[in-house]
Amino acid sequence: MAFTLPPLPYSNDALEPHIDSKTMGIHHGKHHSGYTTKLNACIAGSNIENQSIEEILKNLDMSNSALRNNGGGYFNHCLFWESMSPNGGGLPSGKLLDAINSSFDSYESFKNSFSNAAATRFGSGWAWLCVHAGGKLEVCSSANQDNPLMPGVGCEGYPIMGIDVWEHAYYLNYQNRRPDYINAFFSIINWENISKLYELKS
Ligand code: MN3
């Protein structure tokens, strides 16, 4: 079973001015598409070709760099598109907000922690909000296309929100101003989707 590139859940220009249409089109249509094609080439005819992407990543041999980079790239971008919405922003609510308050003391403290993880990731990578069994939340970051599902990346739990801090995610609009991009992400966070994932994975 080959993986398919999921369509963007909104149009390329739907997240403007926070993320520009050209970046969106290239990011989804070229980068994510490329990871999908290469992931399929990695698993074709192998004994893992019928596994879910989560299973593949959890059992990954980290020395298999093609599968690590393209499997990670496939999963990470799927989560990234779902982490944002043209109707997003504002504040989380319900059980997710309760968990944010108990894990980070306050929403502001969570926002600082997540923004800092994203801003200080050197080079290319991601920052994550992860949930542990039982509901506790954690913020972390990982390099390149690694993610918390993979063994030994120094991040634990299930990622329920991710921000891509590769330059291809923001450079056309923000150049070297990564902190401005991170701040803009908070205006488009899809708290509804993230709450659903929180309830599913906690
Ligand atoms: Mn990317």
What does this structure look like?
The protein contains 8 helices and 3 strands. Strand 1 (125-131) and strand 2 (137-143) form a beta hairpin. It is 47% helix and 10% strand. The longest helix is centred in the first third of the chain and has 23 residues, at 21-43. It has a single domain (19-202), classed as 3-Layer(bab) Sandwich (minor pseudopilin epsh fold), CATH 3.55.40.20. The chain is mainly alpha-helical. It has helices at residues 21-43, 53-58, 65-82, 94-104, 107-120, 171-174, 178-185, 191-201; strands spanning 125-131, 137-143, 158-164. A 3-stranded antiparallel beta sheet has the order 2-1-3. The structure holds manganese (III) ion (MN3). The site of manganese (III) ion has 7 residues, from helix 1.
Topology record:
Elements lengths: L20 H23 L9 H6 L6 H18 L11 H11 L2 H14 L4 E7 L5 E7 L14 E7 L6 H4 L3 H8 L5 H11 L1
Antiparallel strand pairs: 1-2, 1-3
How many E-type strands? 3
Strand numbers in spatial order across the main sheet: 2-1-3
Q: In DSSP terms, counting alpha (H) and pi (I) runs of 4 or more, how many helices?
A: 8
User: In CATH terms, what is the fold-level topology?
Assistant: minor pseudopilin epsh fold
Oligomer: single chain
Which structural class do the helices and strands define? mainly alpha
Helix content: 40-55%
In total, how many domains does the architecture comprise?
A: 1
Radius of gyration: 16 Å
Just give the CATH class: Alpha Beta
The fraction of residues assigned to DSSP E strands is 5-15%
Present as ligands are: manganese (III) ion
The succession of helices and strands, N to C, reads HHHHHEEEHHH
| Biggest beta sheet attributes | 3 strands, antiparallel
CATH homologous superfamily identity: Iron/manganese superoxide dismutase, C-terminal domain
What is the CATH-assigned architecture?
3-Layer(bab) Sandwich
Tertiary shape? globular
Gap between N and C termini: 28 Å
* Average pLDDT over all residues: 97
Q: Low-confidence parts lasting 5 or more residues at pLDDT below 50? A: none
